[in-house]
Design the sequence.
């Protein structure tokens, strides 16, 4: 029986980061991964790298460049004739990006001394881990500590069974070899909007069916309303309050029946993407006597330090509470590895940024205005539109705004919400500021380069106190 200081189950963003950090701390570490890539080799990187964050961003970037060439180049005086999209070439490039990065993780394992083990890991009693190989054989590892990072899977719904041909999940939506004439998307969340926008940019007529009555309810509603307006102008037909009841596949098309209030509606599509969320991948992961407990939704119970109910066993990433975000899982992996090594590392769950990689991007951190109203917290708001940014106008990319929210009495930043170009990178400046307990005035007193998109963050911070320079300030009531 092989013995390790740390055994990690899963090599996604939470698992591989935990394994590398544990090895860096001098701990003998193994990382188990069951998935294989298209090339038949171990697919490190989990959902994010193989069929999630990275491949979807590759397609989002490719499709955005196509839209720019088709519609925006002329604004810059550039003529592009006979423009066309080679979808198989675009998919091939996406696969190359994935292969390069998954291979990179294998190289990082070697560089840091992590033992990579192929197979499916299962936690047994006494911090033992059973590994089932592809041929059905098993081996058992013994560990001082176990980190479970098994990740998540797309949720399936009975009215739209996945066949990965006509009706696909988020994985299948990354493999289309041609542009669907009509595309249906069930779910107007992050995944549905991103994948819907990829194919809408390339010419699909996209209809998004969302069961909830509100658009992006977790997002600050001023930003969500602006996003809905922009996305609809881009051609996304977003229909709220629509519950899918049935789907029928015939003659390479799918007919979807859904209820829209009291009415029953019907639409026919060439492809249908089911993007209604993800669930923890906790099946066949735990023996009954291992001491680790699940909640009713299949998430592993952990405390603030990702400790399970079994001593020496931790769980991180999508399989535990909190947002299913790669960066959240990675930082949990670092925290756990360092705590195993004796450090007192903790994680600040109040400043985890979220991003929707549409164009323009939507990004936020901290509290929304709606949450603060509900809590009764006094606050001030500063908003700066990108149309007043010289850099955004020069780039012909001036949709959206930056919204900064600060405590009315202490001026401490409570949240920042952005829709616009490079929103994902801009919000990170505010994440850093919030981590250090900064006030809006602190950002307002900081020198920002000119001309930059970052100046919009600066101006929004100034606007909190009515001191914005490049827009008229609202009079304080």
Sequence:
């Amino acid at each position: 029986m092989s013995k390790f200081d740390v055994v990690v189950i899963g090599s996604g963003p939470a698992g591989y980061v935990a394994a590398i950090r544990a090895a860096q701390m001098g701990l003998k570490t193994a990382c188990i991964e069951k998935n294989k890539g298209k090339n038949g080799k171990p697919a490190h990187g989990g959902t994010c790298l193989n069929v999630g964050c990275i491949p979807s961003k590759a397609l989002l970037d490719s499709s955005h460049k196509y839209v720019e060439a088709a519609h925006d180049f002329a604004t810059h005086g550039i003529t592009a004739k006979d423009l066309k999209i080679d979808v198989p070439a675009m998919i091939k490039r996406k696969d190359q990006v994935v292969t390069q990065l998954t291979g990179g993780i294998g190289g990082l394992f070697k560089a840091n001394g992590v033992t990579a083990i192929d197979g499916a890991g299962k936690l047994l009693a006494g911090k033992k881990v059973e590994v089932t190989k592809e041929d059905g054989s098993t081996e058992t590892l013994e560990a001082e500590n176990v980190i479970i990072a098994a990740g998540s899977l797309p949720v399936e719904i009975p009215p739209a069974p996945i066949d990965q041909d006509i009706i696909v999940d988020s994985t299948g939506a990354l493999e289309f070899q041609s542009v669907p004439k009509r595309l249906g998307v069930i779910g107007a969340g992050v995944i549905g909007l991103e994948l819907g926008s990829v194919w809408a940019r390339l010419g699909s007529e996209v209809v998004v069916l969302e069961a909830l009555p509100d658009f992006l309810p977790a997002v600050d509603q001023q930003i969500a309303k602006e996003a809905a307006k922009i996305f609809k102008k881009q051609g996304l037909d977003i229909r709220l309050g629509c519950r899918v009841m049935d789907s029928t596949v015939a003659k390479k098309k799918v007919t979807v029946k859904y209820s829209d209030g009291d009415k029953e509606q019907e639409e026919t599509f060439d492809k249908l993407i089911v993007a209604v969320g993800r669930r923890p991948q906790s099946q066949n992961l735990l023996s009954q006597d291992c001491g680790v407990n699940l909640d009713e939704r299949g998430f592993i119970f952990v405390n603030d330090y990702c400790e399970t109910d079994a001593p020496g066993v931790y769980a991180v990433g999508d399989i535990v509470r909190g947002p299913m975000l790669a960066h959240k899982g990675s930082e949990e992996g670092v925290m756990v590895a360092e705590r195993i090594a004796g450090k007192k590392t903790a994680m600040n769950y109040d400043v985890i940024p979220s991003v929707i990689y549409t164009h323009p991007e939507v990004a936020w951190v901290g509290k929304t205005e709606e949450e603060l109203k509900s809590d009764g917290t006094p606050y001030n708001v500063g908003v700066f539109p990108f149309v007043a940014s010289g850099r955004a106008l020069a780039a012909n990319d001036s949709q959206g705004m930056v919204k900064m929210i600060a405590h009315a009495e202490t001026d401490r930043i409570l949240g920042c919400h952005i829709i616009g170009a490079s929103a994902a990178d801009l919000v990170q400046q505010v994440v850093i500021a919030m981590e250090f307990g900064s006030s809006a005035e602190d950002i307002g007193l900081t020198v920002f380069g000119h001309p930059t998109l970052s100046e919009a963050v600066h101006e929004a911070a100034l606007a909190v106190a009515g001191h914005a320079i490049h827009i008229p300030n609202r009079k304080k009531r």
Q: What stands out?
A: The chain has a mean pLDDT of 97. The longest helix spans residues 87-112.
